[in-house]
Structure formats: C-alpha cells, structure tokens
Amino acid sequence: MAQITFLTGGPKVVEAPDNSNLLRVSLRAQAGIPFKCGGGLCGTCRCRIEQGLEHTDKVKPKERKHLSDADLAAGYRMACQTFVAGGDVAVSW
C-alpha cells in the first residue's frame, strides 16, 4: 500500500494499493486533481510530485507531448499516466 497526500485544497491523505493510477485515486477520494479526457490527450491533469517522485513509474510518451524535460526534472507528471508503487507520494496541482 502507498499513502498518497493530495496537497492542493487539503491536505487529504489516502491509502492506495501499489500500482494505482494517480488520477483514479484522486477521483475515488474526491481529492480534486483536474482532468478532462483521462487518457493523456489534453494535459489538463498536469500535477507536481512534491515528494516521492522515485515511487512513480517511468514517464510515458504521452506525457512527453505535454511536459518539457525541465518540467519532468521539476517533478511534473500527468496524473492520468502516472502510477504509484513502492512508497508514499505527495502531489499538488
């Protein structure tokens, strides 16, 4: 299990099984990460992993269309494309 802390408008802390999709966890917990498509096309769910970036999976090609190398280095990801495993994460948007 991973503990995900949604910082914006919170904080709100929820438990999620390993390999959970960040956007889906936000939706279930009503944590508020904004989204429109949920499939990596629009970029609306851009968020920043404030802590625990090492506990997220590798960056997907769809994310590279919306995020620069500098964005990725600063911890930005797209919630719909990001899966959390192996530890706790804190996220803002």
- Averaged pLDDT: 97
Number of strands: 7
Query: Low-confidence runs (pLDDT<50, min 5 residues)?
Result: none
Let me know the largest β-sheet. 5 strands, mixed
Count the helices. How many? Answer: 3
What is the element string, with H for helices and E for strands? Answer: EEEHEHHEEE
Task: Summarize the amount of helix as a percent range.
Answer: 10-25%
Strand content: 25-35%
Rounded to the nearest angstrom, the radius of gyration is 12 Å
> How do the strands of the widest beta sheet line up side by side?
2-1-7-4-5
Find the structural class using helix and strand composition: alpha+beta
What does this structure look like?
The chain is of the alpha+beta class and 93 residues long. It has three helices and seven strands. It has helices spanning 22-29, 61-64, 69-73; strands spanning 2-6, 12-16, 20-21, 46-51, 76-78, 83-84, 89-92. The strands form two sheets. A five-stranded mixed beta sheet has the order 2-1-7-4-5. A two-stranded antiparallel ribbon has the order 3-6. The radius of gyration is 12 Å and the shape is globular.
